[in-house]
Amino acid sequence: MSGAMQSKGVPALAIEDLSASFFTYRGEVVALADVELELKQGEMLGIVGATGSGKSVLARAVMNQVRAPGRITKGSIRLQGEELLEFSDDQWRETRGRRIALISSNPRHALDPLTAVGVQLGRAIRAHDKQPDPKIRAQVIEALESVRIPDAKRRHDAYPHELSVGMAQRVLIAMALLHEPEVIIADEPTAGLDVTVQRQVLDLMKSLLDELGSSKMVVTRDLGIVAHYCDRIAVMKDGRVLEETDVRSFFSGPSDFESQHLLARTLTSGFSAGAGQIVVRDPGQSPSDTEPLLSVRGLVKHFPIRGSRLTVKAVNGVSFDVAPGEALGLVGESGSGKTTVGRLILRLIDPTEGRISFEGADITTASQREFAKVRSRIQMVFQEPHASLNPNMTVGRNIEEPLRLVREGRLSKADRTDRVRELLQLVQLGEHAESFPHNLSAGQAQRVGVARAIATNPRLVVLDEPTSLLDISVRGEILELLNRIKDEIGMSYIFISHDLTAVRSVCSRIAVMYLGRIIELGDIEELFERQRHPYSRALLASVLYADPDARVPDFALSGEIPSPVDLPSGCFLESRCPLVREQCTTAHPPLEQKSTGLEAACYFSDELMALKKEEPPR
Amino acid sequence: MAETASADATSGPQRFRAGSRGGLDYFFYFLKNNPFAILGLAIVVVVILLTIISPYIAPYDPQKTLPGKTLKPPSSEHWFGTDINALDVFSRTLTATRTDIPVAVIATAIAMFIGVSLGVVAGYFGNRGGPGGIASEATLRLMDILQAFPVFILALALVAGTGASTINVGIAIAFVNAPIFLRLIRGQVLGLREMPYVEAARCAGASGKRVAFRNILPGVISPALVQASVTIGFAILLIAGLSFVGAGVPQPTPEWGLMIATGSRDIVTGQWWTSVFPGLALAITVFGFALLGEALGKALDPLQRQ
Description:
The structure holds 2 protein chains of 2 kinds. By secondary structure, chain A is of the alpha/beta class. Chain A folds into 2 domains: 2-267, Rossmann fold; 269-290 and 307-330 and 464-481 and 491-618, Rossmann fold (3-Layer(aba) Sandwich), CATH 3.40.50. Chain A contains 22 helices and 22 strands. Chain B contains 13 helices and no strands. The chains are: A alpha/beta, B mainly alpha. At the A-B interface, strand 2, helix 17 and helix 18 of A face helix 1, helix 2, helix 9 and helix 10 of B.
C-alpha cells in the first residue's frame, strides 16, 4: 500500500519555510522559525535538540496537531508532493494513521487506561478499514505478534496497566504500523524505557520499518540513538534547524558551530561517549585501610501491598561500605531497588532488616530525634530539579533551610547569609539568591539542589539520579560540579543512576543492582573492562555511543525485569540470561571475589569471560 | 559554564518560562480571554461596593415605614415599589448586602481557617498509622457524619438550638462548611506530601510540624481561595434560606431571604415586586461569586497558565 504513492525523486515529506508560534499573554513565542527539512523515501531522519528547541512542535505540526494557543504561521509541509497544510479535516482523518502515523513517548499515558489494548488496536484498524469483528481480532493478534509480544492472544484482552512499559511501547509501535503508513514519526520513542529494553525496542522498530519501506522521523535528545539507527540528522535549536546532514559526516565533525558545541558536550561529559573519550574523573582515595564512613549490612526492605498479604521485595540483602572521600556508584534499571537503598540510608523509610552504621555508630534503629543529630552530615540530591525545591521560597532561602535546622552549632543569621552567598558562588549562581525556583532552568535548579545538599558540610551525599532528567548538554555541567566539590571538599558520594557512563565519570567504585541485590561490586574500570556478571555485560552492551562506527557489543538479555512481588527462586536473572544452566534455578549465587577488586554473583562468570566480548553469545 | 546555563534560561526569541509570575500582565491577559471572569469580578466588586456605601445611597431608610405607601408598584419614586410594611424595596434590597455579605464572608473565613488547619494536619499525618493517623481518621469519620446531614437541615437544627440571630446564623454556616475545606485540603496535602521538595525538607532535618506548615501549607492556599469564593455564594444562599423559613435573621433587618418570604404572600395577589427584586439580587450575587470562583480556579491552575 505504501509503495503506491511513492515516486522517485519526490521526498516523502518536504517541509519548507515552516514557522509556528504560540500566542500567550506575554505575546508571540516563536516555536518554529523558517524550518526547512526533507525526509527522503525510506530513510530514517533523527531530529535532535535540547528541551524547548521546537522538535516536538515540529512533530506535531506534521500531524496537524498544533493546538491553540499555538498556530502554524507560514510555510508548507508536503507529503509525497501533496500540501498537507491545505488539507480539510476529512482529508486529515483519512491521512492520520493511514499515511502518517505517530509513535509517542510515555506509552502508558498514550493508551486509554479503560480499554483493553486489543480493542484499542481494533478501533485503529476500523478507523480506516471497516471489517467484521472476528477478522479484526485476527488482525490485531497478528499485529501484536509482529512486534513480538509473547502470548499475543491473551494480551489482546489486557489493559495498559497490566503491561510493562516496554510492552506498552510495542503496542504503540504495532498501532502505528497497522496501516503501513508512508511516514512514521517517533517522538522520543524510548524516553521512559530502561536501557536494556530500549535496545530491544529500537532494534525491533528499525527492522519492522525497514521491511515496510516507510520513511521515518525520530525526535530524540539522545545522540546515541541517532548514531546507531539514523541515516541523517537534523539539529534544532530555538525553533531553527541548524544543520541537516548525514549521520556519518555529522559525527566526524559537524559544520555548524552550535552543533559542534552539542556534540562536544556530549563527548566530554562522559555521556554516550565512545572509546577514547575524555573521562572527567580523579580516581580518588582507595577504600582499603581506612575505617568505612558508611557501612551497610544485609539491608532488606519489603513494602506491604495494601489490602493484600503480598509484599514488594524492593531490597533483598544489600551490603557495602563507603570509605571517607570515596564515591560509590549504585547502578541498575528501574525496579532494581537502588533508590530505596538511598532512602533507607537517609532514614526516610525504615528498613525491614539489616544494619546501617555511619561514622561507626549504628543508625538503623535510631529514633528520628537521635537521627536528627546525624542528619546534617548525610544529605541528598534529588532527581527532579524543580520539584525538589520549595516553590514558595527563594533560591537563597531554599539553600539556607538545612542551615537553620542544624541541631548543634547553628550559625548566626549573618553567618548563614554569608554561607549561602559562598555556596551560590560555588555553584555559579551568585546573582540568583532572590530568584524563585521556577525562574531557573533545570540545570540551574539542580545546581541549587547540590548547593543545598552541601550547605551543612555533610560527610556523605546521596545523589539520586541527579542528571537523568537533564538535557545532555547540562548533564556534563552537573557532573563537573560534583567532581569539583568532591575534590575540593572531600565528601563521600553514593551516586545512584541507571547511566553507567555518568557514574564512571564521578565514581571510583561501583555496585550493580538487580532486583534488590548487588550482583557485581568493585573497581569501576575493572568492571568496564572485565565485568564478571552477565547483567553488567548486558547493561554495558546497551549503552549507545554517539559514534556511528562504534562496534556494538552484542550481548542482549531477553524479556524484561521480573516482578519484585514474586521473585525467582534461583538466580534473579535466570529468566533472561543467555548463559542459564540447571544450577541457576536452584539458589541465588552469592557475591564472590572474582578478581582483584571485583566481586560478582554468578556461577558461570568464567564462562562469560571466555566469551569474546564482541561476539554473540550463541 | 555559568554562561551556558544562563543562556539556557533566556535563550530563544522571547522564550516563555513556565510558571513565571506575570503579575498584572497575566491578570489582564486572563480577563481578556475569559469574559465570564470579567462578569464575575464585576458583580463581586459591585456587591462589595454596595456593602460599604449602600446606607449613603439608599433613597429611604430601609427600616422606617412610609405612611400610606403599602404595596405600591414600582414607580419613579420607589423603583422597586414598596412592601406590605410600607418599606421601600429598593433601599432594602441595597442595604441587605450589609447583612448577607459580611456574615457570608466572615463565616466562610472561619470555615476556611478550621478546614484548612485540620485538613493540613489530617493530610500530613493521615494514612500513616500511629496516634496521628488514628486521630486524623477519627476527624474524617466525624466529618462524614456531619456531611451525611443535608447542609440546610443541619444549619436549621443548629440555629433552632441556639436561637435565631445573625451571629448564630454565621456560626452555623461556618460549621457546616468546614468539612468541605477539610476534605479539599486533605486531598491536596496527600498529593503534596509526596513531592520531592517535602522529602528534601525532611532530609534537611525539618520536624513534622515545620514540614506541614512551612512547606505544605503555602501550596494549598490557592485551591482554598477558589473554594472560598464558591462557598461565599452558597453561604449567602443559606442565610437567605434560613431567613426565609424564619430561622435566620430576625425582622425587620433588611435581608434578601427575609424579604422574599415577606413578599411571597403578596405574589398571589399580584404584587410581584416585593419578592422578585430581592430574589434577583440574591441570584446575581451568588452567580457572581460562583463565576469568580471558577475563574480563580482557572487562573491559579499552573497547567492552565501554560
